Structures are given as C-alpha cells and as structure tokens.
Amino acid sequence: MSTRRVAIAGATGYTGEELIRLLLAHPEVQVTYLAASAKWERPVPVSEVYPRFARLGLAVEALDPSRLAASADLIFLALPHGTAMSLVPDLLKAGRRVIDLSGDFRLEDAALYPQWYTFSHAQPALLKDPRLAYGLTEYHQDQIAKAQLVSNPGCYATSVLLAILPLLQAGLVPEDRFIVDAKSGLSGAGRKADTDLLFTEMAENLRAYRVNEHQHMPEVLQEIRRLTGRSGRMTFVPQVLPITRGLVSTLYVRTTATADAVGQAYARAYDRGRTPFVHVRAGSLPEVRPVVGTNDCAIGFVASPALESLVVASALDNLTKGAAGQAVQNMNVMYGWPETTGLLG
C-alpha cells in the first residue's frame, strides 16, 4: 500500500505535538503539512518550534484551508473547540478523511452545544451525517472503518466509558448510577496563558473545577444510551493534578457484584487480540506513571460485595490514549492497518 499523506492543523498545541511524535514513527504515513492557527504570522521551521522534530523538514504555517485540503489524504484537526466545524464541510467535499480532536462533532444534538460548549453549532446536519463516526475505537471499529469524519472522544470520556460500559452492559450497575472522581495533568487544559495554570498556582495543589458541568458529561451519557439503551446517572468531579500529563478516573458504584462477575464483564468486553490497548486487573487500582507516553488504558477494580461497593479506576495518558494516540488508532482502523501500528514504540 502506498504511503498516506497526513496533515495536522493545530500543530503547536500539546495534542498537535503528540501527533507529530506518533506520526513520525508510523510506517504507513508521511506528514506533509503542519499548520498553527490562521493568526500564525509567518512560516517557522518545525526545528525552531520543536527541535526534536527537526528531521521532519517542514515549516509550521498559518492555517490555510485550501492548502490543508490539497496537502493530504487524511487531516487531523487539533484545534480549539468551535473551530473545526467551519473547516470540515470543505474538507469532506474535497474527498479528504478527517479526524477531529475537538468537541465539535461529539454530540448528536446541536441544542446541547450552547449549554456545554458555550457556542451554537454551525453545521448541525453533520452531527447526524452517516459519514460521521464516534471514535471510541474499542466499540466502533466497523463504523470508523467506513467513516469519512471521525470525532475523537474527550480524554475524560474515554477513561470513564472504557471503565463503565462493560459493567452497564452486564447489568452490574443498579439504577445505572455511578460517581466519577477524575484527576488530570495540566496539559489537559491546553497550551495557553492562564493564571490558574501557573506553576506557583498548581505546584503542591489539587483543584476541582466544573463539577457536574464539564463538557465530557453529555458525551459519556450519550454513548451509554447508544450502546446500552439505558440512561446513566453520573456525578462527575474533574480535578487538576500538578503533573504534566496523565489521567485517572476513579468510579464508585453501589453494587453487590462479586469480583468474579466484574472480571467476567471486562473479559467479555476486552481481550488482547481485539482490544490491544485496554488492560484490566482485579484487586488493585492502576497508577498514572506506567501509562504516560503510551496508548494504553489500564483498568483495575476492587469489589466488596458485603459493603455493596465496587471501586474501578481507569488510567491513561490524556495526550495519547485520551487524544493523539486514539486518533492514530482510529486512522489505523480507517485504512485497515493493525490498530497497534505506530503505537507500540
């Protein structure tokens, strides 16, 4: 198979940087265009932006939609929320395949966007377009393989869904109610100037934010309805950790399910042959450090049926499995390559 040309719009963000890292190691693709925002003043050699990627030999340019469409077969959009929706229609019209890493196409109901993303959706028809697939790879391989547009899930959403869906599908969550205590590294907030994210504000600190108001909440509940037909009820407390990258979501479920029942539910959902990046362990909870820099999602659980308690933790790298790595995994599915291609280094 000939090498596929890929482009990145939003190359100067943390997710864009991670995409470059992964795609440079991918044997089936060639990065042909790197764009920042439309406000980028002049082309800058990538060696000046990211010295470790000097061998790429490209410049980071101002985002030009025409150049973007002409430069690649598949385009990664790693842009701020509300930006991709204006670019996608022309990219699809040009016959390009697109993976969007923002929230612009994650929700099916356009009416939800003003509430959860603070903007109205400019392309509501695309939210129900059959060419669109939700990129939770472990659950939507068939749709992703045929898609022209893939909406990459949010990092919190990925960690929560991979942990809770097997339990809901097995009927182990009474009343479909669960609590999520999630903690993410600072890179999850993006590369931007924000006083709240300064080192002196976050070092030796832990801060909750957007409790029960985070934009990943409707995404999680939508996917639960889609895959189980049930209406999940989630209490969600996201928090910022004073680390660069990594995320752990701890889920609390009131249930009398035994460890064997829980283990069987996960075994039915995930196996190393079909879902190579999800690893489940009974009796202990995962740590953040082992998953950083990988596309893995480590899930662990402790079941205490006498206490009607099940604690599940899901750890991943918010920039890799929570963003760029899952995007590359989805690209692999779109082109029929093994899901692990370029992701095991």
Q: What does this entry look like structurally?
A:
This protein has helices at residues 14-24, 46-49, 65-71, 84-93, 113-116, 141-146, 155-169, 199-202, 216-228, 259-269, 320-334; strands at 4-9, 29-35, 44-45, 59-61, 74-77, 97-100, 132-134, 149-151, 177-184, 207-208, 233-240, 247-253, 278-282, 297-304, 309-316. It is of the alpha/beta class. The chain folds into two domains: 4-129, Rossmann fold; 155-318, Dihydrodipicolinate Reductase, domain 2, CATH 3.30.360. The strands form two sheets. The protein has an eight-stranded mixed sheet with strand order 3-4-2-1-5-6-8-7, with helices on both faces. The protein has a seven-stranded mixed sheet with strand order 10-11-9-12-15-14-13. Strand 5 (74-77), helix 4 and strand 6 (97-100) form a beta-alpha-beta unit. Helix 1 (14-24) packs across helix 11. It starts with a strand and ends in an 11-residue tail after the last helix. The model has no long low-confidence stretch (mean pLDDT 96).
Count of runs of 4 or more consecutive helical residues: 11
Radius of gyration, in angstroms, nearest whole number? 20 Å
Unreliable runs: none
Indicate the structural class.
alpha/beta
End-to-end span in angstroms?
22 Å
Topology, number of strands: 15
CATH topology of the largest domain: Dihydrodipicolinate Reductase, domain 2
- Rough shape? globular
Helical percent range? 25-40%
Give the second-level CATH assignment, the architecture of the largest domain. Answer: 2-Layer Sandwich
Q: Quickly count the domains.
A: 2
Order of helices and strands: EHEEHEHEHEHEHEHEHEHEEHEEEH
Cross-sheet strand order for the largest sheet = 3-4-2-1-5-6-8-7
